[in-house]
Structure formats: C-alpha cells, structure tokens
TrEMBL record:
PROSITE patterns: GNAT. Pfam families: Acetyltransf_17 (PF17668), Acetyltransf_9 (PF13527), SCP2_2 (PF13530). Signal peptide: none annotated. One of its GO terms (molecular function) is aminoglycoside N-acetyltransferase activity. This is GNAT family N-acetyltransferase.
Amino acid sequence: MTSEYAPQMPSVPPLAEGLSSRTFEPGVGGDGKPEATTAAFTRTVEYGFYEPWYSDEQLERLQPVFSEDAQELTGVYVDRGFAALEPWGSAFETIGFDSEHPVGTFVDYDKTLNAGGAEPLPARLITGVTVNPSFRRRGILKHMMTSRLAAAVEDGMALAALTVSEGGIYGRFGFGPATRLRGLQINASASGDSFASTAPKVGKVLTVDPSKTRDVLKDVFAQFHRSTRGSVDRQATYWETGTARWDPENITSWDRKARAAVHVREDGSIGGYVVFTFAGWDSEPATMRIRDLIAEDATSRLELLRHLVEMDLVERIVAPNGSPVSDPLDYALTNPRAVKTTSLADVLWLRLLNPVTALESRAWNADGEFSLTVSDSLGIASGVFTVSVSGGVAQVTSTDSATAPQHFELDVATLSSLYLGDVSVLTMRDAGRVAAQDEADWQAFSATFDLPTAPHCATHF
C-alpha cells in the first residue's frame, strides 16, 4: 500500500535546568551597529573556535553579509538569576561574560545543493556550532540540533548540510560525509619531477585586478554550481575575500597579498578564475598558495594551473583544501609525479530529511527498481521507500512494506553518505552499513545507484 509521505518531527529534548534557548535574526541598532545580542553571539562563535574576537568595526562589516544570507542565530543562555543558586554562581556573575553571551551557538541559513538532478535542491546549511566547555553534558548540542532540524522539516527542506571540525560528533544526528577534497602540491621548478602538460595551450590567462572581479567570480561560480554535482552555493563572504576587500586576518583591511588571474577562452568568454598569494621570499622553496580556483570546465582549470606553474621564480604551488578528488590534472601531465596529494579529507556532510524529495532530485546511473528501508534514530526520515528509475529520473514512493524484488536496509547517515555518489553501495555493504533482505542483485543495485565520478564541493561554511 502506497502512502503520502511526510517526514516526522523529531522529539526535541529539554535543556538542563537553568538554561533556555532562543532563535533570532542578526539585528542592527539605531546607530547602524549590530545589536548587543548579535555582537555577543558572533563573538562567542569566534571564541568557541579559538579565533580572535571581532572588533566593533569588524562586526559592522559582517552584518550586511549575514543579512544577505538570511542567517538565523540560535543561542542557549543561562537564565538570569539561576547562576546565583549554584556554587559557581558568584564567580560566573562577577568575572564571567554577561548574560547576552550564549553558552551554546548554532547558525543556519538556506542555499542550494547540486545533487545532479535537473535543478539544484534547496538545502539548510548549518554552521557556527559551539558549546561552552564549562557547560557540557547539559543537552545543549542535542537540543539545538534537534530543534533546528525540526524547523527545517517544518519549512519543507529535503536535507541539511554542514562542514565539520570534528568527525565524530554528527553521525548520531543522521549526518554522513558526502564529499571529499584533496590538498595538492605541484612542483613548479625546472628540476626533478617538474610540471609539464601534454596538451597545447588553449585561450589566454590574464593577471587581473582582484578588486574588479566581483561579477566575474559570481558568474563563473554560478556556471560551476550548475554543472558540478556536489556543489553548494556560496555565502556572501566569498565575494568579499575573493575581491581582496577583506583580509582573512582582519576583515576591516584590504587583502594586499591577494592576486588573481582569469582564463579567457578563444571566444572571449571567461572560463575560470584563481585567487592566490605568495608565501614570501623566506619560504623554501618559493611557494605560491592557491586560495580559490573555480573553473567551468577542465580546460580552464588546467590552464590556470599551468599559468601559476610558469610564473617566474616560483618553485612550488600548494592548494591545501580545494582540489577535486576526480581531477584531470592527474592525467594531463607528462610526469604525473609532479603533483602530490598532501591531504584527503571529508568536506560536506549531509543529512536527508525527506528521502522522497531528495532521491527524486539526484542523478542516477542506470534504470532500475529497488526498495529501501531507512532507519533514523531521530525518526525524521524513517520509512520504506520504493525507487523506480527510468531515463535517469527517479520516482520515489513511500510504502508500508517493500514492493520491489530488490530490498535493502540502511540508516539515514549511510543513505546521506551515498547520496552524492562519493562512495559505492558495494563499499558500504562491505563496511556493514547496507544489508539486503533475501538474495539481492548487488551489481544491479550498484549500477543504478552509484555514479561514475566523485562529487565536488568547493564551498566551506
């Protein structure tokens, strides 16, 4: 029997006594400066990530981009008067932060995710998650996460996404790693395993003034986002740092180290850009560092890298956190040892909220039909789903029991990791994360579900 599917609202656990939470939009006072609550919240996030506190001027710079992204802030606060009832209350009220500073923070806002389907899918992005170490084991993270996932479900979001600082935290909330990035080191010297491309040059790479590139950055990224499975649309801070208006060390200053170049195709259109900095003459060997490289196609990406390698006096190029796992660069060189992978790490973590909408919005590799029993400890996405793929498009229905001959069982975190195609169902089977009822045609399931290339998310948040 087929039923109309609606995700279930999770049960939101209460906070410990003396704590309360509230969600609000970043606010501006009559003087044009961020309200005290917003300023305290933002400074608390930076404190939680061991970063310098923002100055008043820095907060004023941040406010417009927070508003542009329509961010919502959720804070957990110590109730007024409660601290006085505790042995530590006197110290807390005397030398602790004031009551506007939360002991837990959580930020979310909406962008889109390219899941490989016809159109990008709206996604609820999560960032700024911190808990004051003096207030652990009081249910703060669980309360914030479940309450905000409940809000995402109520808003009709098909999935939530985050990038994580610690990999062991978010699996229990149904998140799974869904994309990875490589760090690269390229030998740009004339000796040893040096860089040399097998392809002739195409188009022209121009050194440009980064302060003039805002529209170019937006246009190129928009094309990249539309064509790249795994891509997440970018928050407004990218356009400030990419155009050198914000120094990452102090956003009130211009980034005078930033350099930029664009690849101009033979038809005059711009196919990609790179933002980079020189590590300084005391770096050994002389090193250029890529901050951001976005290209609409492989040709533009390779030409931008070739341009950096051929710059005078530069002996090494490093791209610490932005290279795709599936990179044509590996096979475009006469000597592939000129490029070394220095790191490989997860980036984007996903959490499916509505499997029907999410699965109908992704790419598929072949026609096929199967049923999935999805378990979810929060109850949001639990259910049995029959997936019928024809012509690269899936029709997904929620059923009371499996209706397809091939039936598989997995939890929502596993399904979320499989969603963009970064890992195979066969790998997840071997890891004990996917099981089959009765005899299963794993090869047919893999042929339908798995995708031929790795996804690529170039957005950090």
